[in-house]
């Protein structure tokens, strides 16, 4: 009947055995990926965005900090387990200005993940043909070295790695 046809045509789902761990398939690295540090959001109006998170949602929001080397103003929104970074253009050559030209209302710009050894990460990622958007790490918003990985090599996501 219909039920037996539905059961036989239903796709099978494989489950992971609890005795096998994901790490068995991951080669050992000289560096280790850490926790999610922040998700960055480009915003066309920094004051409105700060107000949304602080006044409407009740979050703890930092003061605005200018980062001329990166061409951005940043504001951090503290969450229990991570942060949001609000980004606004600083100057005409800001990468956020060009992002906002394509995304008028703003949107997610990048994710930032901590690493325990940024230099080792750079060396290994280059060997694995992952493009890094600078030759050397720059000092990021937290005063620590950061690099960005090309979004085309990371499934469409701009990934920032920050020294833990």
Beta-strand percentage range: 25-35%
CATH architecture: Roll
In whole angstroms, the N-to-C terminal distance is 60 Å
Assigned CATH superfamily: 2,3-Dihydroxybiphenyl 1,2-Dioxygenase, domain 1
Largest sheet: 9 strands, mixed
- For the record, the CATH class is Alpha Beta
What structural category arises from helix and sheet content? alpha+beta
How many domains? The number is: 1
- Describe the global form: globular
How many runs of DSSP E, i.e. beta strands? Answer: 9
Question: What oligomeric arrangement do these chains adopt?
Answer: single chain
Please mark out the parts with pLDDT under 50 across 5 or more consecutive residues, or reply none: 15-20
Order of helices and strands: HEHEEEEHEHEEE
What's the CATH topology label? 2,3-Dihydroxybiphenyl 1,2-Dioxygenase, domain 1
Rg from Cα? 20 Å
- Give the helix level as a range of percent: 10-25%
The number of helical runs is 4
User: What is the arithmetic mean of pLDDT?
Assistant: 88
Short description:
The protein is an alpha+beta fold and 164 residues long.
Task: Report what the structure shows.
It is an enzyme of class 5 (isomerase). The protein is built from four helices and nine strands, in the order H-E-H-E-E-E-E-H-E-H-E-E-E. By secondary structure, it is of the alpha+beta class. It has a single domain (35-163), classed as 2,3-Dihydroxybiphenyl 1,2-Dioxygenase, domain 1 (Roll), CATH 3.10.180. Strands 1, 2, 3, 4, 5, 6, 7, 8 and 9 form a nine-stranded mixed sheet that branches. A hairpin with a 4-residue loop joins strand 4 (72-78) and strand 5 (83-89). It is globular and about 45 Å long. The model is unreliable at 15-20 (pLDDT under 50).
């Amino acid at each position: 009947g219909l039920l037996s046809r539905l059961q036989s045509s239903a796709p099978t789902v494989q489950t992971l055995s609890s005795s096998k761990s994901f790490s068995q398939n991951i080669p050992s690295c000289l560096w280790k990926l850490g926790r999610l540090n922040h998700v960055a959001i480009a915003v066309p109006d920094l004051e409105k965005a700060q107000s949304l998170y602080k006044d409407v949602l009740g979050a703890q929001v930092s003061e605005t900090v200018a980062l001329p080397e990166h061409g951005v103003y940043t504001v951090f929104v503290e969450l229990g387990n991570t942060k949001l970074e609000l980004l606004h253009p600083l100057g005409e050559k800001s990468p956020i200005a060009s992002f906002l030209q394509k995304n008028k209302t703003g949107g997610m710009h990048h994710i930032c993940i901590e690493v325990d050894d940024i230099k080792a990460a750079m060396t290994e990622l280059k060997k694995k043909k992952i493009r890094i958007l600078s030759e050397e790490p720059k000092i990021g918003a937290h005063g620590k070295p950061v690099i960005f990985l090309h979004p085309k090599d990371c499934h469409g996501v701009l990934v920032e790695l920050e020294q833990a």
